[in-house]
Please model this.
Amino acid sequence: VDYHATDTAPKPYTCGACHTTGWQTTADNGGVNQDGLEGILGTWEETGITCEQCHTPGVNHVVSQSAADINIDESKELCGSCHFRDVNHNIEASGGFIRHHEQFDELIASPHQERNCIDCHEAHIGVRYGNAAAGGIVATCESCHSNITSNAHIVPVDCENCHMGRATKSARAVHTFEGDVRTHLFRIKTDAVGKDDMFFVDPTSGKTFTRGYITLDIACYSCHTDPITMEGGGGSQRTLAQLSARATGIHN
Ligand code: HEC
Ligand code: HEC
Ligand code: HEC
Ligand code: HEC
Ligand code: HEC
Ligand code: HEC
Ligand code: HEC
Model:
């Protein structure tokens, strides 16, 4: 059976390309299914993303045990080989949220398009479940943007809470304005417009894509509350117009 087999568009199990190490499709391996399971359209060497998926098979390294024998690729394209969705790197969206695993596509549409993922990330440590503080993030926003000393907001708020709002949905949204994965678009539009403004329908493909910024409802309603829908983080009610007035020139 396919993943989401009862949907109008069921997904075949080709997930191994990004979720396993040493994946070969059935077209490449002569029609073999992992563990003889017909739905799995290929085979893997190891489950999950392990050393050799990023460092290529380490035949020499195993013999020498020297770090000099490990192939190291520092480019964002390495990470982007899995953290993307559309081959043209348009940022796909659906249901009012950015779709997940598009960090590469977002980054190259952002003011950080010249950055590599590992400028900020330690390649071997995750950031979910509190791991950012445990070394998953090697450069904080403040370390590069030392001129932004204060957000002049009445309470101190971490940069990520506004600039990396959860505009993306992987499994489940918290509410209308908060998904479950942080965005890498970073730029915040300060006009008094809601998140519909982030998206447009491409007439050729009929798909919904994302422009290169987040709107104030995504940036601010993870804490504040929208007085119209009464959705948000439960903090003080602010209209988009009030947020816009406060957000414009917020760091000046
Ligand atoms: C998601 C991709 C990825 C995986 C998986 C991965 N690495 Fe790395 N590794 C990198 C990148 C990228 C660098 C370069 C880091 C840098 O320059 O800051 C690196 C650097 C290294 C280095 C050089 C020393 C250092 O820390 O800078 C060693 C040694 C290493 N990796 C070993 C491993 C081993 C062993 C594993 C499996 C347990 C592994 N890596 C898994 C991406 C990966
Ligand atoms: C193009 C590469 C790619 C393909 C193909 C892919 N995934 Fe993923 N997936 C990712 C990446 C990268 C992440 C983590 C980043 C994110 O969620 O934004 C992820 C995250 C997930 C998560 C959430 C994991 C967590 O810890 O929250 C699940 C579940 C998942 N994928 C299932 C699947 C299934 C099932 C398929 C096949 C039907 C699939 N994926 C195909 C790249 C891919
Ligand atoms: C071969 C595919 C692949 C490559 C290459 C890859 N990733 Fe991932 N990455 C994944 C998948 C799949 C997940 C989701 C796994 C899960 O959550 O169970 C993920 C999850 C993550 C997460 C969130 C997980 C957490 O616990 O915080 C971060 C951060 C991440 N990757 C960063 C990177 C960086 C940085 C690079 C490049 C050095 C990279 N990835 C290269 C497939 C890949
Ligand atoms: C490794 C250094 C580095 C880190 C870390 C970093 N940035 Fe940047 N950032 C830059 C550079 C370089 C630019 C582009 C130069 C510019 O336009 O100012 C930039 C641009 C920006 C811009 C657009 C600036 C403008 O004038 O429009 C925003 C917003 C931004 N960064 C926010 C953040 C946030 C939020 C974080 C933390 C999640 C962060 N940055 C982390 C280096 C960094
Ligand atoms: C300018 C710095 C910066 C760059 C560049 C960057 N990231 Fe991140 N990333 C972060 C920060 C900060 C977090 C959030 C950490 C936290 O939640 O505390 C994060 C979170 C993530 C997450 C987890 C999101 C979630 O909410 O589950 C993934 C996956 C990820 N990054 C992948 C990537 C990939 C892949 C690239 C390159 C294409 C990349 N990042 C480039 C700073 C950066
Ligand atoms: C991490 C939570 C959080 C986020 C995100 C957040 N705020 Fe706040 N904000 C607060 C708290 C807490 C207060 C103080 C209590 C109150 O007034 O609700 C506050 C107060 C305010 C106030 C009244 C006091 C003042 O400083 O003028 C305004 C206006 C405001 N926020 C605007 C914004 C805007 C605009 C954004 C998005 C760009 C935003 N906030 C994002 C938590 C947050
Ligand atoms: C309360 C939400 C909020 C927080 C917290 C926040 N920012 Fe911003 N930031 C904004 C908004 C909104 C803008 C857009 C301002 C404009 O366009 O007038 C912005 C703009 C920027 C810019 C573009 C240049 C500028 O001065 O306008 C940079 C760089 C930036 N922020 C970095 C940071 C860093 C670094 C942090 C953490 C120290 C941070 N921000 C914390 C809301 C926030």
